[in-house]
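G.,

No rush on this.
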Amino acid sequence: MGVDSHGLDIGDMLTTVEIEGLGKFLHSMLQKGMKSLEIGTWKGCSAKVIAEQMKQCGGKLICVDDWKGNGNAETLQKAKDEFIYNIFEENMILLGLWDVIETMVMTSEKASSLVEDNSLDFIFLDADHSKDEVMKDIINWMPKLKSDGIFCGHDLDHDSVRAALNEVLPNKYHHLIDRLWFSQKEEVDAGNKRETKEVILCGLEHKEG
């Protein structure tokens, strides 16, 4: 069980380094009324990081999850034993972040059919880690980003995630920090790799994927 500094059962999906890195990354791109979306929320570990930044700019975070587990035995059992959505909601209320959060309690595929294209500034993916599902999520959600939007994700240490990225975003994703990666919509649309081999952003070094 992951317990944060407030004593909340919020999960431990992200390391301390990843939490700090994601927060800085988002802070560097804040704009008034920014609209973000997370695919795979669970108890709210990464949602907390994103929502804190959205609160600073008067933005919004849409959390997409059916809160039934992502297919592996451990999360499926936890979803049966605990009311995960209720834990997530209580966490966000206690953190004072519920007012910037909207939930879509459904599958990622269903939610993607309901969100308008070119409407989001930032997407964070941490859902089913299988190659096919990661590919499907990227293909379904990339069009939802604005032209200058950022698609970010977790679990770069998984072979299945790297395989999906290399197939659907060949040479168009970057290492952010630890297990986090990101891709720029304009770069994907352009269909080619940046000329620079290193990207320096908000004090973090990002290497090409």
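When you get to it, here's the other one too:
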Amino acid sequence: MAIPKSPPRLSSPVLPQREPESIEAICRERGMTLTRVRRATLEALRKHRGPVGAYEVMKALSIELGRKVSPPTVYRGLEALAAHGLIARIESRNAFLARDEPHRPPSGVYYLCINCGSATEVIDAVVERRVAYGARQLHFKVARQVHEIEGTCEDCQAPKKI
């Protein structure tokens, strides 16, 4: 069975600012409560261009919430947001990233710049179909997918002007 080809749909490296109602609607649809800590965690991640470690998130939350936030609180928030597809865990960096398109299933390919640390999520229907096809052929139930590509982004490749 041939898999039809389609061009990948590129998402913006700069996260679009979604209306809070949109994120709340996604949470309601997925049966998730968007608590104050989870909302602040998501906003802290959205402010960064690349993946952010849990302890950096913890510092940002402590400032945002005006109180010390413990590591278990941060990890619970990160795990809940990841489980509902609002953020992605970048395995190779042990860090988290706000997803560009949280309304889509979390199956994107992440391009990670080794110079500046930026990350871009690319939703590629061809990759999605190929993984699904392979899983069907093997009678394999996919629990999660990790697609991370490391290299140098366009900005870091550009010649420096003097």
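Helices lie at 20-29, 36-46, 54-65, 71-83, 125-138, 154-157. The longest helix spans residues 125-138.

Enjoy the weekend,
O.
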